[in-house]
Amino acid sequence: MTLAEHLSRPFSHWMAGEGADADVVVSTRVRLARNLRGYPFPEYLREDMAQRLLDQVSAAVEVLGAEWDVYRLGEVDPVDCRVLVEKHLISPQHAQERRFRGIALNSSESGSIMINEEDHLRIQVLEPGLGVDTALAGASAAEGALGGRLDFAFDEEKGYLSACPTNVGTGLRVSVMLHLPALTLTGQAPRVWVALRKLGIAVRGLYGEGTDAAGDLFQISNQITLGPSEAEIAAGLVQVTRQVVEQERHARGLLITESRQEIADRVGRAYGVLRHAHLISAEEAMRLLSDVRLGVESGLLDRPERQKLNELLVVTLPGYLDRNAGRPLGRKERWALRAQWIRERVA
Amino acid sequence: MCQECKRRTATVHVSRVVNGQTEEFHLCEACARERGDFFFVLDPGMALQELLSSLAQPVQGSVPVPERACPECGMDYRTFAKTGRLGCPECYRHFHDQLDPLIRQVQGSVRHTGARPARALTPAEPDEVTRLRAQLAQAVEREAYEEAAALRDRIRALEKELEREGLP
Ligand SMILES: [Zn+2]
Ligand SMILES: [Zn+2]
User: Fold this and answer.
1) pLDDT(B147) > 80
2) ipTM of this predicted complex?
3) Which domain-ending residue is among A237, A253, A269?
4) Per residue in A74-85, pLDDT tens?
5) Residues A219 and A310 both lie in one domain
6) What is the CATH number of the domain that holds A195?
7) What is the pTM of this model?
8) Which end of chain B has the smaller Cβ count within 10 Å, N or C?
């Protein structure tokens, strides 16, 4: 599959809107950090070695089968890289410094491997809903297959060795993206975050750090990577996630029974604006899409479906809009194109 | 104050490396989101990374900072204390004495119990023998002699292999 085919398609496997607890959990991501023995970590790689490593990993990816392709970011347009970031397939850091870096993708985009990011390999699997077991199995299978071709740096005591000691051991980070409008609206979210952090769980807004979450979307993930096994880390995160999901459902139930008119009004107004706006900022779009999503999940609205809402999270972002227009857009053009995408999709 | 709208308070501080030069932006949330500076965070291990960097700063009276750089990649400990990132896998061994307490504090453990490379099986095999011996004892207990015989054969074969490799 060509990279252009990946990029022009808004849909990615994680957006399917299926899977367990999909009324609250948008998606699950599992990643394994791996490094090759005998090479410095990417930040300290000489150019010729970085090139050699990229070649070696690209060749090894063939073992994963025909639905996988490797793209060299040095040959990819910056706007295209930005779309990869917006589709959650690579990190912003990976898109910034592109030379000697690569991305391997499978055709459904459920699997991706960043090559020469902070670690030599970051093997990732994205699943819709709460799909930790599936994602971990997928990432482990890919890791195992690659391990037959590549010599991963492993220490008897410390496990898999990573550039930053915060990833050492399993190299495993499990993250789930949650939509928590009711916990936010009822002011309970901060209390939940404090509890989660005490459990060693990191909490982030979807976009950016140290800021309020855009669109009531949050990511929670394990911090500790060394000590417990992969299965234990995964099970711990699933357990915590289920508790948050229950709290969110409870808060939604309360909102609907106690303030039905207010919520129905809020949701209906959001839908009306999205359905009819001709100029809309990213911020307003995110906020209103969250209200509409709450409406759909609470049975106050019967459309748009989850998959459409998930796609809108991506197609309303600047990179995607610019790429589709085929040129960098001015502010007003962008607002107009965004509004148009939304109008077509919420109808 | 936000650089873009010059109206709202700047709450988002983005630094970006462009051609080796660090550029800094100070924006309000609305403008940052508009520019697409809000990104999906692929690695939320940042809090730990900050903790690690602060812990890695040399403190008087603690384990002395090694003067010698890592023989494999040439990175010295002061660089690690600044960045929180190591130079190569060998750094873990070279800076073991400094890293161990650090990793213990950040991770709560220094012992990996998870997956291991399928190819580096040799050192794990004594464990495998132990496991098989336990199974053997159970099989004998249950009087499952056929199973026990098969287990005994596998243990012998493994022990021979380990002997060849010079392991206990
Ligand atoms: Zn501003
Ligand atoms: Zn080193």
Assistant:
1) yes
2) 0.89
3) A253
4) 999 999 999 999
5) no
6) 3.30.590.10
7) 0.81
8) C
Residues A22 and A139 in one domain: yes
| A208, B39 Cβ separation under 8 angstroms | yes
Which residue is associated with the tokens 């039905």?
A260
Q: Which of B28, B29, B42 to mutate to test the interface with A (most CBs of A within 10 A)?
A: B42
Q: Give the separation between CA A100 and CA B145, rounded to whole angstroms.
A: 59
Classify residue A168 as exposed, middle or buried by CB count within 10 Å of its CB (0-12, 13-18, 19+): buried
Residues of B whose CB is below 8 A from A224: 107-109
Q: Examine the domain organization and report whether A194 and A145 are in the same domain.
A: yes
Contact: A165, B108; criterion CB under 8 Å: no
* Domain encompassing residue A33: 3-253
Residues A306 and A206 occupy one common structural domain? no
A31 and A137 both lie in a single domain:
yes
Residues A327 and A207 reside in one and the same domain: no
Q: How far apart are CA B130 and CA A164, in angstroms?
A: 34
**Which of A169, A141, A175 lies closest to A155 in space, CA to CA?**
A169
**How do residues B82-120 score in pLDDT, each as one tens digit?**
888 999 999 999 999 889 988 988 888 889 999 999 865
Are A95 and A85 in contact, with CB atoms under 8 Å apart? yes
**Mean pLDDT value across chain B:** 74
Which domain-ending residue is among A253, A283, A311?
A: A253
Find the closest chain A residue to B16 by CA distance.
A96
Give the whole-angstrom CA distance, residue A71 versus residue A62. 13
3-state secondary structure of A33: strand
Q: Which one of the ligands is nearest to B7 CA? A: 1
In chain B, what residues touch A37 (CB-CB under 8 Å)? Answer: 89
C-alpha closest to that of A102 among A112, A88, A87: A112
Q: Measured between alpha carbons, how far is residue A283 from residues A4, A93, A318 in Å?
A: 28, 23, 12
Query: Is A241 or B140 the better-scoring residue by pLDDT?
Result: A241
Q: Are residues A201 and A276 in the same domain?
A: no
How many domains would you assign to chain A? 2
